[in-house]
Amino acid sequence: MLTTISIESPRQPELAxxxxxxxxxxxxxxxxxxxxxxxxDELEQPGVAVYVARDATGRAVGIAALVGxxxxxxxxxxxxxxxxxMHPDVRRHGVAGHLLAAMETEAAARGIREIVLETGPASHAxxxxxxxxxxxxxxxxxQYVGEELSVCFAKVLPKAVQ
Length: 162
Hints:
The structure is a single chain. This protein has helices at residues 13-29, 40-43, 95-109, 124-132, and strands at 3-7, 48-55, 60-67, 78-86, 114-119, 136-138, 151-156. Strands 1-2-3-4-5-7-6 form a 7-stranded mixed sheet, sandwiched between helices. The chain is an alpha+beta fold. It has 4 helices and 7 strands; from the N terminus they run βααβββαβαββ. The protein has a domain at 3-113: Aminopeptidase, CATH 3.40.630.
């Protein structure tokens, strides 16, 4: 399946639909207090890049956000992957892998050294996907510390070619 990946504004009707579907899916698996979904306002904040995968017709079929960027002092080189979701029509067609790889390449070029993320133990497809993409399970971090329905992962990115 041919897809293009670009950074776009999250405030678009078709992206709102992907975020709605993502939220419904998360709510079907976990109680509200165990869902850490960012809304459109949070996705529009500085330091957040929203990546959109579009199929050959231009339809948005996948979304993911990268939160955080190196600070001015160069001490923070970690970003968190949030809201990664593929439309059910394109699952198992390689779109998620294409989106993740593009995001990792762009993040490394911006100086991000590590991507971290949180998912849940009932998200079996996500757990397998991230493990297969080279992410390793790490201790719970940040707002997820103490959350019994959270599983955290991290991946060190290769240095970008200058």
